[in-house]
Specification:
The chain is mostly beta strands and about 180 residues long. It is globular. Bound molecules: 5-phospho-D-arabinohydroxamic acid and zinc ion.
Length: about 180
């Protein structure tokens, strides 16, 4: 007899993509990243309509609900603006003590982290790398490879995103390609 209490999951994560009815996609073009790269002249000379990254997310509860979790997969294109790699905008969480997990799925990246005292450090991202980002730490990812970087993330549904602090003050160090290698300068 058919078991009426066993269901199929509503979402599939096939290792690379989130699939299901409740997946929301958002896109950031290079032009949306104005101001985050040091070399403004190089930036303005590029195709600002090109996609820098897109994110596929599932929000099982309403944003701001306490106790829930969200998940998102980020697809960050390879490229550079001057000697800086394509990177995500980066943010603190609005509820600053909320933590997050990131994990590497495909490609080669660098997770750049900064505490409220503006100390900066970075962790290499690669397929299978797992990164616990404690509360109070701003986070941004750079694609340091030649192919698309894919990473997944899960964060609390009441974390929220504070982009303003980073938009205004940036990170205290920049990740640049120096002699062919990524370096925090
Ligand atoms: C991630 C990020 C995603 C895009 O899901 O939102 O990688 O980066 P930005 O939000 O900085 O543009 C996350 O950290 N959520 O909290
Ligand atoms: Zn976050």
């Amino acid at each position: 007899m058919e078991d009426k209490k066993i269901y199929l999951p509503e979402l599939i994560f096939n290792g690379k993509e989130l699939i299901g009815d409740h997946v929301e996609k958002s896109t950031r073009k290079l032009g949306d990243l104005r101001g985050i790269f040091e070399n403004g002249t190089a930036f303005e000379s590029m195709n600002l309509e090109q996609i820098a990254y897109h994110v596929s997310c599932t929000f099982p509860v309403q944003e701001g609900t306490s106790g829930g979790l969200f998940m998102g997969i980020t697809y960050l294109m390879p490229g550079k603006v001057g000697d800086e790699y394509f990177m995500t905008k980066g943010h603190f969480h609005s509820n600053i003590d909320r933590a997050e997990f990131y994990w590497g799925v495909e490609g080669e990246g660098m997770l750049i982290l900064m505490n409220e005292a503006r100390e900066v450090w970075a962790e290499r991202m690669y397929p299978g790398s797992l990164h616990y980002i404690p509360g109070g730490i701003a986070h941004r990812v750079a694609n340091v490879g030649n192919s698309m970087l894919i990473f997944a993330a899960s964060w609390p549904s009441d974390a929220g995103h504070n982009y303003e602090t980073i938009a205004k003050h940036g990170f205290a160090r920049r990740l640049k390609e120096v002699n062919g290698k990524p370096k925090l300068v």
